Amino acid sequence: MIKKASRKSLREKRLKRNRRNIAGTPGYPRLCVYKSNKHIYAQLIDDTAGNTLAAASTKEPAVGADLKVTSNIDAAKAVGSAIAKKAMDKGIDKVVFDRGGYIYHGKVQALADAARETGLKF
To answer: Which of 7, 55, 59, 115 is the most exposed place for a label (fewest CB within 10 A)?
Structure first.
């Protein structure tokens, strides 16, 4: 009998393969995206020191308060613009985009486009 790998294990496999080539520095941090069934999260990470420089998610009242649904494309756009604003406040304008093993499509693409429109370069 053939056993099919789970979607989670396949995503983690893509994530590890991508992480070998992507690393964040203090001046050029990694913009990491994570999606759950209910929320969307984004972080700016400095991999050399192992610090999170900024984070945004739909769980934050500033981002998710005016959203009806916290797991759709509109929520991803709100998180993208929020993380870009936080990065600009800290003086960060260039990042490395880490899509977290997800396909660059839908919510991940909406988050990236919103961050670009707000001023981040990647």
So the answer is: 7
For the segment 47-87, what is each residue's pLDDT rounded down to a tens digit? Answer: 999 999 999 999 999 999 999 999 999 999 999 999 999 99
- Tokens 């960060």 correspond to 92
Residues 6+ positions from 59 with CB-CB distance below 8 Å: 39, 41, 70
Q: Which amino acid is at 33?
A: V
Chain centroid to CA 31: 5
Closest to 14 (Cα-Cα) out of 102, 96, 85: 102
- To 10 degrees, what angle do helices 107-118 and 73-89 make? 30
Region at 106 (left for phi over 0; alpha for psi -120 to 50; beta for the rest):
left
Tokens of 2: 């053939």
Residue linked to tokens 């789970």: 6
Tokens (6 digits) for 70: 């916290």
| 7-118: CATH number | 3.30.420.100
Strands 96-98 and 51-57 come out as: unpaired
